[in-house]
Amino acid sequence: MTDANATDELFATLLETVPVGARRRLSQQLLRAAVELVQQQPELLDLKIAAAALQELGDAFEMFASSQGIPKVTLFGSARTQEHDPLYAAARTVAGELAARGWMVITGAGPGIMQAGMEGAGREHSIGVSVRLPFEQAANHIIAGDSKYVAMKYFFTRKLMLIKESKGFVCLPGGFGTLDETFELLTLTQTGKGVPVPIVFLDTPGDPYWETVHEFVQQQLVERGLVAPQDTKLYLITEDCEEAVREIVGFYRNYDSLRYVGDTLVVRLHKAPDAAQLALLNERFGHLCTSGTIHHAEPFEPERKENDRLDLQRIALPFSKHGYGELRELIDLCNTFVD
Fold this sequence. Notes:
339 residues, alpha/beta, Rossmann fold, 3 domains, seven-stranded parallel β-sheet, four-stranded antiparallel β-sheet, 15% strand
């Protein structure tokens, strides 16, 4: 029997264990990739990375499954922030206000800003995704031992889960780790690899941390043509906790979600624009279309097949797949169409 036939037989046997109704094509793709990786006889370190990453992603997926359908916000910030620091109080306040509105708060489960966020949200509304480091303690006392906590070996898998599960982000001052998380979030949003989300850079009065970062972006990135001026619209800088909460919650006042159907971008809304509002969208953002115009739409066949948000209104456009800062502005305008 050839290696190919043996592999196919192995796939067939493994697929028999996949539950009825599971996405068998993707399940087969995952199994095939794992088997082919092992057959390549990679270096020990490479095999360890692949095995650990897959295992801990599985653990994280299972942990998050229990809170599907509940909106989540991720707080980024320093583990070194002390309880007497105004930033600590700000993180606690914002998290508490969002939890009171039905949001769950995700943090890295450590001390500092992460603990402050969990204090504000409370254990019931907190989710922790930590990374195991040789010089830091385990999860903070609020989330330790909770079923909504998972520890991960790698930063890249941890960042994936901190970003993937959230519909909003509040970034407070921090060190290299906070800046790494923040700029990866911006990169994903700027390039369309992530969906549009509200991103708040939260300062405190007299502490212009994010204003200084913005000045760097403006002077060294925008003015050099390294990012577009509209990319600075992807985030809001504020020192007002109430404004931060309004930015997160208000982003979904009318806007719900989007998806691509082929090359068509479908934007799902709670209330469709009227004729005058649609004309305004085309006047301001029609250049984002590769052809045609922004127009009303009924659910597309793939959406119907998957029963994907069929109760919502829709606008659609053949999106050029660049200018995501302007796409964010389009969503902001749609949010003004409701009271």
